[in-house]
Amino acid sequence: MQLGLEYYLVLSALLFTIGVIGVLIRRNAIIIFMCIELMLNAANLAFVAISRNLGDPDGQLFVFFVMAVAAAEVAIGLAIIVSVFKHRETINVDEVNSLKG
Amino acid sequence: MNPEMILFFIFGAVSLIGAIAVISFRHPIYSALSLIVTFFAQAGLFVLLGAHFVAAVQVIVYAGAIMVLFLFVIMLLNLGTLSAKGALTGKLKGVAIVLGILLAVQGIYIAVNALKNTALQDAEAATETVTTYTIGELLFSKYLLPFEVTSLILLAALIGVIVLVKRENQTEN
Amino acid sequence: MFEQLIIILLISPLVGFLINGLFGKWLKGKEKLSGGIGALAVLVSLICSIIAFVKVQGGTTLPNQDENGIVYEWISGQLLNESFTFNIGFHVDALTTVMLLVITGVGFLIHVYSIGYMHGDAGYTRYFAYLNLFVFAMLILVLGNNYLMMFVGWEGVGLCSYLLIGFWYEKQSATDAGKKAFIVNRIGDFGFLLGMFTLFAAFGSLDFVSIFDNAEAGNFQQVFGASTLVIATLLLFVGAVGKSAQLPLYVWLPDAMEGPTPVSALIHAATMVTAGVYMIARSAVLYNIAKTGVVVAWIGVLTALFAAIIALKQNDIKRILAYSTVSQLGYMFVGVGVGAYASGIFHLVTHAFFKGLMFLTAGSVMHAMANELDIRKMGGLRNKLPITHATFLVGALAIAGAPFLSGFWSKDEILHSAWGAGGSSIAIYIIGLITAFLTAFYMFRLIFVTFYGKSRVEPEVASHLHESPGVMWVPLVILAIPSAIIGLLLGVGGHDSWFHHFTEKVAGFKGEALGSATPFMIISSIVGLAGIAYAWTRYKNRVPSTEPTNTLQKLVANKFYIDEVYNTFIVQPIKNASHFLLWKLFDTGIIDGIVNGIAALIRVIGGTLRRLQTGLVQVYIVSMVIGIVLFLAYYLFFAN
Lengths: 101, 173, 640
Hints:
The complex is a heterotrimer.
Chain A: H1 5-25, H2 29-54, H3 58-88
Chain B: H1 3-24, H2 28-48, H3 52-77, H4 89-114, H5 132-139, H6 144-172
Helix pairs in contact in B: 1-2, 2-3
Chain C: H1 2-22, H2 24-27, H3 31-57, E1 70-79, E2 82-89, H4 94-117, H5 124-143, H6 147-165, H7 172-203, H8 208-217, E3 223-226, H9 228-243, H10 252-255, H11 261-270, H12 275-282, H13 284-290, H14 293-312, H15 317-337, H16 341-368, H17 386-400, H18 406-420, H19 425-451, H20 459-463, H21 470-491, H22 498-503, H23 518-539, H24 551-557, H25 562-610, H26 617-638
């Protein structure tokens, strides 16, 4: 007997929520970035769990693509963070507000 | 209480604690290390779900490559802890936690209720294990085009990073 | 064949205009070529006009002329369930060919004269382009077979007049005069437009043939009751008053002398200003039915008298001629007003020659005198400018009504017709006779002061006083010949003359036999010669005084203060109204207020909304998450 799908989904939801809260309360751009990775992982978990329950390997393929995109995103994002830091000597998102209206 | 359940609770608890640690530590290096813990626990969950290939990739790509990149940047920038309270974050914190709780409640509600009476509930149809062979076959047949596009995305990211860093050097000069 | 001829006649000046107008840059410095093209274009028209004249005299008409000789369908449409069309088409009859000969004949000579006169001017090619365009517009005016085409030409000549008066646009007075001419003409054109609208409402068409036929048959809509045609003809006459510089809209013509002198000769003496006379003659049928000719005649005769009085005290050679033109135009209106259309057109023809001649000789004087216009600074020019003097004398004798010169015949015919027209026309005759005396007087005052007596020319000007070059004096001589004899050729026999027979085929031109003209001729001659003699006694050796001596003279010398009156009672109130009402209140107050108000409102809204744009990324994310939570809540708990 397998463990029910809802266990995995609840865990996924909790991890996702923690990621959201992290994005909202932390000001360090790198930690915000990590929280985004956390959310992506939560989504991956849901993908794999549902994939197993449907007996369809496509879900795992999606996880594979998510990871590839995440890798690209991290590379670019970190490069941007490095750039911002070089310009402004900070990666505090509160201080990076040149788009203020 | 079957072994899967025990393992699930262990891995689940570790990943949750790791996640909370990510958003709690002041110093980003601790956050990064906590994130690695979470990733490993997730890899364990993937194994439980019979996704062995994904679990391996999770460890290699996420815990390996991506997190190394994070740590590298943190060390490169030599970031210390930021001052505890920003002007805005203090006010936002309460709002953010309330929102987070609401979001969690909604997520759990979906997980428990909304999926009832759907095909997803029928665990009997589930296959035990998806082999690397199956994934490889799908990747180079059904998902060939997305696979190639992914490679393009990675190439674009590569070039993008080079451009970003290069331009930076020029302005410094 | 005839149709093609007319088209060549019409298009030729347009081609000249296009060449000089478009390729003026390349023609710069090649004055002979540029002027030659301009003159050649008109020469082609002149030759075509002569052929057309011969053909019309031989009884040829345009094919389809009676069905409104259509060349091209211009506008067609529906109005109140009635379809209408406006066509480009020609109407060529005796009246048209007479006008064609005047326009192209005088026009050609003036083009030739201009080649010399405009020598060295920076705007040489531009001048010839405008002049060709003018001839083209004038030809449209007289060739059109409907009022709309006439109006197109009417506006076209107005435009060219504006362009040529302001030709030396670096001069403030020239641009002002151009604007004045244009604006005053607009008042008249407005009347012309309203007249056209009235005719269109009444007849559903603007074609001459159909309007005249229907008017004679009484077959039209009584849009203004029984007085429909009265209103239409009076409105058309308003247009003529503006274009032909009659009371009270004559004020632009004296100022129009700011333009080059050949322009004054061609446009402001010979052709454009006579467009009003032509228009009334063309609409003779309507004026006969409406019986509004008496208004035309009275306006004409009063203008004639008024302008002649003003001319008495002017010292500017071109202005004297300008007022003289206004006065002579008044005579033409008397002619067409009393129903003697042929006589009015006859005077138009003779006047075109002798007044064109006098303007050109005035130009020749100016040419010799380094653009001096004040006759008090001339005197004794007879010896230095013999040809100019002789030709001017011919023109002056013609306008003064010296026996057997052209003005004698045409003016006499008009006065004779006025006498015989009945009603108030005897008063018109007497005023006309007084004007004839004044005309002879001021013309010879001009001659005696300019060409006789002691020289008052300033020394530095006197040193290079010279007769004009051949290209200028030859046209003068050529013009002097018809000025002298054309009356004799066309006018002998009065209302039984060749000219009357020629034009009687045109509707409404039948002059009535009024009895013997001989006594009238004798009276006119005596009056004219008396005017000359009186001028001789007064100005033989006397210079006009600079300062007017009494109130009456002052009044006349200042042109009855008409310009000042217009300025005070019309121009200034309009200017003030524009300034305070339109500009200050309406434009800056209401229009700008709305525009600025909208801008200010948007700025306030934007300023408020701007605060949402904190630049803090987390605030944006919070809003996003709030949205997600709300949407999820809606779909999970409320959607079903």
